[in-house]
Every structure is written in C-alpha cells, then in structure tokens.
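Lab meeting prep.
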Amino acid sequence: MRKRPLSTRTTALKPSKAASRRAQTPIRPARAQDEGPLLHMFDEAVEWLVERGQPEQWGSEPWSQAEKGRRAVRSLVQDGGLHMLERDGVVVGALDVGQRLEHVKPLDVAELYIRLVLTSRRLSGNRLGDRLVDEALAIARRQDAAVLRVDCWAGAPSLVAWYESQRFVRSETFTIDGWTGQVLIRPV
C-alpha cells in the first residue's frame, strides 16, 4: 500500500486568549515619566465614577488638580511595586502589588496584595483588567505566594462582582472614616 507523503504545510497553533492579551499589551515596571499618564487615568476614572453616582470610591475632584492625588501618584510610581500596561506604546493600565495594607488583617501564609488595578476608561471592555490580574498572579507565583488578595470599595457591587469573576472570593470587610472596603482572596 502506498503511503501518502507528509504535507510540507505546517499548521500554526493558535495562542491562548491570555497569551494573545500578553503579546498585545506588554507590562513593564513604572518609571518617573509615568506620573502624567497615571494621573490621567485616575482623572478618567474619577469622572466615570462621578457620572455613575459613585464619588465615594475616589472622590469627585480630578486627582491631577488635588495635591493629595498628585502625592499619591508620585508615591505609587516611586514605591517600586507599580507596573504599567501599554498598548501601542501608550500607557493604558496600572497594577500596583506588594505587601498587604495595614488596615487589612494579616494571614498566616505568604501572600501578594494587589493595591491598585486601574485601566483607561477609553478602552473599557478590552479585558485590560483581566490582563493586570493575570500579571499579578504571575508575580505572585514568582514570589512563591500562596494567595493573592485585593480590596475594593464595598459600595460598588459590580466591582466586587468583577473581582469574583476573576476567581476571588470575599473574605472580610473593613471601614475607614465611613468608607467600607471589601477584601477578596484567591489561591495562587
């Protein structure tokens, strides 16, 4: 019986959706010149939250116009845990990870804490937040963390639900000056 010759044509494997997102949106450590783009994303977020009737999350004043906001951004950039997400060379997201914040109860296992997930509102729906959480998980794995935690404003059910869609589960709440936060956790 005659064998058919092997085809010389190769079939490329399709990359996974997560691999495709990583290739299209690189993440790099923050640098000093990221203060401006980061402030702009905070301003976009504040405007969007106010339009939705949720000024309790980050206030109603653009961060770029408030000394407190500018100081917070400068601190984020200088802290060392901030990573910038880019698309076509433009900053479109930010992820800050590190130690848990002092208002959150400690755990008996190694953890990494997400202190900020922020994406450009202009690109809402492009799964940029998913990409940032993927990166936080990758960092947690490299650091041998057992769990990844995050907190967010408990007064935004859709935000809490988004973190739950990322496989986080609610663990505890805290209140600071009348602002209630929801802590969520997921295994690494």
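Slide two material, second protein:
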Amino acid sequence: MASRLISTDTAAGSVKLALLAVATLIVTYSQSILESIFAIWALHRYGFGPRAVGFLLFAVALPALLMQGGLVRLLAPRLGEGRLASLGVLAYVAGLGLLANASTLAVTLGGLLLCGVGLGAYNPSASALASRQSRAQDRGAVMGAYVASASLARVLGPFSSGLLYAALGPGAPFLVGACVTLPAAWLVRRAAAIT
C-alpha cells in the first residue's frame, strides 16, 4: 500500500522524481547552510549586527520573490523548466562562490543577488517538473515525498555549517555549499531529458 501512495505514471517518472528529489536535497542543503551561518559570517567579515544582516538577506529574498512572482512564468515557456531550473542552480552556485571569497560589500551583494535569482528560478521550476511525475490522484503523495528531501536538507545544513565554519574558516560553508550543489544542475537537466 505504501508504494502505491507514491507511485508515478511510469518507471521513467520514478527516475525523474528521484533525480529531482536528490537535486532539491542538495540545493536546499546549501540554502540552509547559507541561511544558518550568514549572520555569523557577516559579523565576522563586516562587523554587522542583526539589522544589517536582515537588510542583506533581503537581497536574497527580493530577487527570489521577483523570479517566483512573475519572471519564471515568462522564462519557463521559452527555456523549459529543466533548463531554467538548471540555470538557477548555476546562478546560485556562482553566488555562493562570490560569497565564499567576498572581500567587499559590493561582492557580497552581488553574491546574494545571484543566490536569490538562482533559488527563485530553481524552486518553482523543479517543483513543477516533480509535480508532473504522478497521476493526478497521487500528486499529493508524490509531492510529499519530493518535499521530504528538502526537509531532510533543512536538518543537515545548519548542523554542518557551524562545523565547516569552525574547522575550515568563514568562507568554507559557502564554498562547500557551492561544490555540493553544482551537480544539481546536471541532475535536473538529466531528469528533464528523460521521456
């Protein structure tokens, strides 16, 4: 009965869902690293307190909101959801790379903006791809399994971010996040290519 609850239309649909779930796990893992360590990093790097950190994190939220609130609807028909999600991963990885090596506030803002654009492109596109991997009557269960991968990542990211920061230095959590996340671009493209 449990396997019936998360069934997809085809075996290819199951593979696609698995690839998308793994991609979402690693994207959300690095996102939770960013969110959990950023305040400590900003205090260390710039001496910023809660108010300044809040404004900087708004630099992630605003482009993500704009992407999800309208730009994705314009871009997805032109690029396809798989390509858009993959490009979102690449933008996010580039943003993390900038943050890992940021020595100025301008570079930090650039990295945060790229992270916001990337997450704003990835999340709705990958979710849309995942939602089509099931029959209509099973969609809730399939999406529940997909979202569970993100929930697991939300536990692992904060746990590892502090360890990485303490053991390897302030930029390490972002660099590790970027390296771990990069394969998600391939996973999404692979999932979108399966027919």
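Talking points for slide two:
The mean pLDDT is 89.
Residues 99 and 134 are 38 Å apart (CA to CA).
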